[in-house]
Design goal:
This protein is about 55% helix and about 10% strand. The protein has about 280 residues and is mainly α. The strands form three sheets. A two-stranded parallel ribbon has the order 1-2. It has a two-stranded antiparallel ribbon with strand order 3-4. A two-stranded parallel sheet has the order 5-6.
Length: about 280
């Protein structure tokens, strides 16, 4: 390029005329070339013309890359904001829920004690986000020490270990109310994959390697799998419910959360999904 300029400079100094056409990448340094030519004190008019078809294509590609980058940044920022406000929503909902449900807690506690001997609450170790172990709370629905007789098993329909009041609590899903304490503490979220026991996670993981993907988010009181699939108690059921859990993790947003809350309310009032 410099050799070319030196050659053309001699021609212009002799009074010649050149129209300089800059194409492709060279157009990107058009201004630089223009000012170099202006250094020639020949008194001749200098015209600068560029042809941009390739440059336009590059601009279009750059514009597309820019749009995609902005979309990724926006989606990332939206996810951060969603996560932050989700925790705020969970905390607020749990606080208000515990206050409003306190009279119901007293009534349920009285009925449990009246129906069978044992504690009012039942706590069990579950696996939370990133494999963190926490104690999940529920109202006791089975006979005291029932699991010592049967060993760890999945809950199922018409479970003989369930008490009369416990059957009503399960059908109405009121046995899950104490989990608002877990949401308040931050162990759980209102919406998310249901927390499972460590032994069951390891057992299912041997059959379904993707199962631990559920642990990327906080477990919830209710979730997409709970409102779109029946109550399950087998590896086959776990595999089908996992599809819903992974779909939720991929698509999680406010709209989906509120849709799940709506479906959950429908199940509670219709008694659907009781076990």
């Amino acid at each position: 390029m410099r050799k070319l300029l030196r050659k053309r400079r001699k021609f212009l100094k002799k009074g010649g005329f050149y129209r300089i056409i800059l194409e492709g990448i060279i157009a990107g340094i058009a201004i630089f070339i223009f000012w170099r030519i202006k250094e020639i004190n020949s008194g001749e008019n200098i015209y600068l013309q560029t042809i941009f078809p390739k440059v336009e294509r590059k601009i279009e590609i750059f514009s597309l890359i820019l749009k995609i980058s902005l979309a990724i940044i926006f989606a990332f920022w939206a996810r951060i904001r969603y996560s932050s406000f989700k925790r705020l929503f969970d905390f607020s909902f749990a606080t208000i829920g515990l206050i409003l449900a306190s009279p119901l807690f007293i009534i349920i506690a009285f009925l449990i004690k009246l129906d069978s001997k044992g504690s009012i609450f039942f706590k069990q170790q579950r696996v939370g986000r990133n494999g963190k172990i926490f104690n999940m709370w529920k109202f006791r629905t089975m006979r005291e020490y029932a699991e010592l007789e049967s060993g760890p098993v999945w809950a199922k329909d018409d479970d003989p270990r369930v008490t009369r009041v416990g059957r009503f609590l399960r059908k109405s899903h009121l046995d899950e109310l104490p989990q608002l304490i877990n949401v308040f503490k931050g162990d759980m979220s209102l919406i998310g994959p249901r927390p499972e026991r460590y032994m069951f996670i390891e057992m299912i993981h041997r059959h379904i390697p993707e199962y631990k993907e559920r642990l990327k988010v906080k477990p919830g009181i209710t979730g997409l799998a709970q409102v779109r699939y029946k109550y399950g108690a087998s590896i086959k059921d776990a595999a089908r419910k996992l599809k819903y859990d992974l779909l939720y993790i991929k698509k999680m947003c406010w709209l989906l959360d509120f849709q799940i809350l709506w479906w959950t309310a429908e199940k509670i009032f219709t008694g659907e999904g009781a076990r």
